[in-house]
Amino acid sequence: MPKVLALNLDSCELEMRGFDRLWQVMRDIGQNSAVFTIKDIERHTRKQCFTIVRDYVRRLEKAKVLECVGQVSEGSWKGAKKFRLLATPRTTPSVDRDGQPSPRHKGQSQMWTAIRALDRFTKHDIALAASTSDHVVPVATAAQYLKALKAAGYFLVAQRGGPNKPEILRLRPDMKTGPLPPRVLRTKAVYDQNRRKIVGPVEFEEATA
Fold this sequence. Notes:
The protein is an alpha+beta fold. Among the domains are: 18-85, Arc Repressor Mutant, subunit A; 106-175, Arc Repressor Mutant, subunit A (Orthogonal Bundle), CATH 1.10.10.10. Helix content is 31%, strand content 18%. It is built from six helices and six strands; from the N terminus they run αααββαααββββ.
């Protein structure tokens, strides 16, 4: 049986990386129609590769989330494009390299909206309520998401399930934390069995779409 470890994160704050971190920085430095460059974004992020920053900016430009408003006229970055935000949604824009919407977080977002809207629900209710014509949420996906959130303490059990009888859940009032969906993550870490401690950085990535 594989070793199972529990990591207590009560006193820890997770540091965002990737597109989520880049979008947070762009929203901060782009307030009140402020102009910025790719280099400005890179300066405000830690351990973010310049090519990743450039890639995400290009995606947002094609998606018309931001626009180019000129170029730097002097200095070592002369000729670099200057950008301005056209939209500032709280949720990180998820678009492909052609600027088209990507379903990266769409399923979780739709399920969380349904969870917050319904008084009581089963996995079937969430799958149905979260599905749209362009993005269908399978019952199995809804079941996995509900299972993860239940284990994290988001729900009260309104009615226990049984054979051919799905469990009915309710969102705890104190867990109505806001419109952004809780994300289910998997952890990458190195555990030293001799020291009985995690060594090095702990990284998280999304486990479900």
